[in-house]
Design brief:
By secondary structure, the chain is of the alpha+beta class. 16% of the residues lie in helices and 36% in strands.
């Protein structure tokens, strides 16, 4: 892993933010599983706010559900986990290399409060609760138009690909 400064698009950002090009430097995900479109603001070691623009063109809407398209809850959680991973890398002041793997290791208190539909903008607020023994714990809330759509406590760990087959506790 190498240490670098976050890439920002100053022409469109008035705060600390990351455009999609910078996000792709922090996450290995690509279409159709890259679920963070922009980071609006972040504070190292504390919080991050990011967005997912939900469009009817997304592949999962073909089957979930054709008569009433709704973003699957598991993808809302994944979008918040990706946002949390970005915050972790920004906090550590590193960018992952091709040997880095971020594992989603736990979820507690997940609640789905309203559907997320095409045309919605899912605003994800993630706060670091603690970091212990290589496990990061976050409080994540996703809102649409100021209403809570999803909330959960998430846990992730960062490993090298060579250690990826080992349990998190080793």
């Amino acid at each position: 892993m190498t240490t670098t400064t976050p890439v920002t698009s100053e022409s469109t950002c008035t705060k600390k933010c990351l455009d999609i090009h910078a996000i792709k430097q922090y996450l290995p995900h690509r279409y159709p599983l890259l679920l963070v479109d922009r980071v609006l603001d972040w504070e190292s070691g504390k919080t991050i706010t990011a967005i997912k623009n939900v469009t009817v063109n997304e592949e999962f809407f073909n089957g979930h559900f054709p008569h009433k398209p709704v973003m699957p809850g598991v993808l809302m959680i994944e979008a918040m986990a990706q946002t949390a991973a970005i915050l972790s890398f920004l906090t550590m002041d590193i960018k992952p290399d091709e040997n880095s793997v971020v594992y989603f290791v736990g979820i507690d208190n997940a609640r789905f409060k309203r559907p997320v539909e095409p045309g919605d903008q899912l605003v994800m607020n993630v706060e670091i609760l603690r970091v212990a023994r290589g496990i990061w714990k976050y409080k994540a809330v996703g809102t649409v138009d100021g209403q809570t759509a999803v909330e959960a406590e998430l846990m992730c760990t960062i490993r090298s690909a060579t250690d990826a087959s080992q349990p998190a506790g080793k």
